[in-house]
Amino acid sequence: MGKLYKILKYFFITFWAVFVVAPFLWALTTSFKDFNSVNGGATYIPWVDFEPKLEGWRVLIKSPANGGVDIIEPYFNSLFVTCTASLISIILGTLSAYALSRFTFKAGFVKNNDITFFFISQRIMPPIVLSIPFFLFLGAINLLDSLIGLIVVYIVLLMPIAVWIMVDFFNKVPREIDETALIDGCNPYQAFFKVVLPNSIPGLIVAGMFCIIFGWIDFFFAFILTFTEVQLLPVKIVALNSSITPWWSLSASALISVAPLIIVAFVVERYLSKGNLSGAIK
Amino acid sequence: MSKIDLNNISHTYNPKDTEPTYALNPFSMTWENGKRYAILGPSGCGKTTMLNIVSGLVRPSAGSILFDDKDVTDLKTEDRNIAQVFQFPVIYNTMTVFENLAFPLLCRDFEKEKINERVNSVAETLNLQSFLKFPARKLTADQKQLISLGRGLVREDVAAVLMDEPLTVIDPDLKFRLRRKLKEINEEFKTTLVYVTHDQNEAMTFADNIIVMSNGEVVQAGTPKELFERPNTTFVGYFIGSPAMNLFETEASSNDCVKINGTLIKTNTNLSKLKDKKIKLGIRSEFINLAEDQKDNLLSVEVDKVEDLGNYKLLTAKMGELTIKSKINRETEVPSSNVKLHIPADKCCVYENEILI
């Protein structure tokens, strides 16, 4: 390995790091600016280029009565809906994926692969196709503008991802593992929970990660299916826009909205780098 | 530790077809308690299906299985108390070696002291003591297979230990020691061992009884000696023994004689009831020797080649179109001409339509 290679390597890594981090830094500085600093040309360094203000952040936690926007409630709504929907999707998805991987189903010409495809096909059509049916459906059961209604819809959206990833994963866990567990005296449920599931943790992590990401970033359904009672974070952030774009509070809310995903990324990265997931997401 | 009866067992993987193809044709068999059995046959002959039927992973299409005269055909795998070791190591990745070995006992609610005692004793047998606290996934392939074996042996009361080519991934030296170990375990604990293999040496050295299978059919079951000396079909004669049995196409010329290239060879078989004159004479190369002072049953042959194979010489002789192989003593000198081979009448097997008469 030549010296040049080393220099190039570090140069590239530095370049890429800047490329990735720069938008965050930009948002971070912007979140501490006020109207004049934002419109007074590009400035970066607080106290030197501009006087930092906390207004952008303060607005987010103030109640609307005091001229704030209060994103705390939507934030926890989003967390609750995403986590609950992801958890239920993972549980249901894992169980159905195990069944699809281990047992043979046949109804006329419909076989295991067709059922798996049926799950994935839910994600093939554009989401807008589903919006009116979902709206009417939730309206019919009185769940429009409610957390439960959103959870139901998100389960529909997230479970195919979980099924898809887990079917693939279980297919790679050799059947002999289940059979050995049966021979060792487990009943089929024990075999699944004690032996197959612990072996599938990497797959569960990947599936969970995808569910959380797709649930957390959804704007479209949250926008269509809620009005005033319940609001999710992406909708609330978009609603910050007014005739004067509040760049400072938009930046602040953008930063706190990606925070959970960054935490997820850090947690999962440990598993990814260990190589434990090799083959889990292919 | 049970006697296992297989009554008219057969199995097909496509039962709904009008003419299902059978992976296993109907057969009946009894496996005595505490004996060692080898199921021998080429790949795809139904060996594994037979094991899976006994362990309950596969339900036979027809027939019944009895453990100690109790019908277990519909009993689930987990309730049969049987151990099975697969061809490739199956270990529980997330557990330590100790937990792997203890798992069959834990599932059956054994007491803690008992579990410790059994796991330690099995680990000692398989030289795994120093690895007990290691995560099982960190071990090498043959150590993993030892764990699989250990899980099979950790319960003392199993009906039988079924092994599906368990030593494929293990290197030859360890293979030899393990085979002896399994024999010792069988002798000590009187566990019924059923061992699937396609290696005839393994089967001959390991088992009390060998079941030879071909194309889903049990061709012959018997002691290694029986299989060697009186193969039921030409397939068994060909499959067992190295080199394969000498087989000559011939025809009967009297009540107990056949004619090979014009030479009369006397056999101990009554040939008077043959429907077909065309038959085959089979004889092991081990039983053919250079003639010393015998008068009858001699074949004049030309020596084609003599190979020294260490503990014996393999003589390949020609008699017209026929090739005859004979295993002879290392010290014996083979004359270059006027060679006569003696065919002992009592070792001759006569086959009509490939089946022994």
Description:
The complex is a heterodimer of chains A (282) and B (357). The longest helix of chain A is centred in the N-terminal third of the chain and has 31 residues, at 72-102. Chain A has helices spanning 3-31, 35-39, 55-61, 72-102, 112-121, 127-140, 147-172, 175-183, 188-199, 201-216, 220-225, 233-239, 247-274, and strands spanning 106-107, 110-111. In chain A, 71% of the residues lie in helices and 1% in strands. In chain A, helix 4 (72-102) crosses helix 10 (201-216) and helix 12 (233-239) packs antiparallel against helix 13 (247-274). A two-stranded antiparallel sheet of chain A has the order 1-2. Chain A is an all-alpha fold and 282 residues long. Chain A folds into 2 domains: 3-53, no CATH class; 72-274, MetI-like (MetI-like fold), CATH 1.10.3720.10. By secondary structure, chain B is α+β, with helices and mostly antiparallel strands. Chain B folds into 2 domains: 4-234, P-loop containing nucleotide triphosphate hydrolases (Rossmann fold, 3-Layer(aba) Sandwich), CATH 3.40.50; 245-356, OB fold (Dihydrolipoamide Acetyltransferase, E2P). The longest helix of chain B has 18 residues, at 172-189. The mean pLDDT of chain B is 87. The chains are: A mainly alpha (282), B alpha+beta (357). At the A-B interface, helix 8 and helix 9 of A face helix 2 of B.
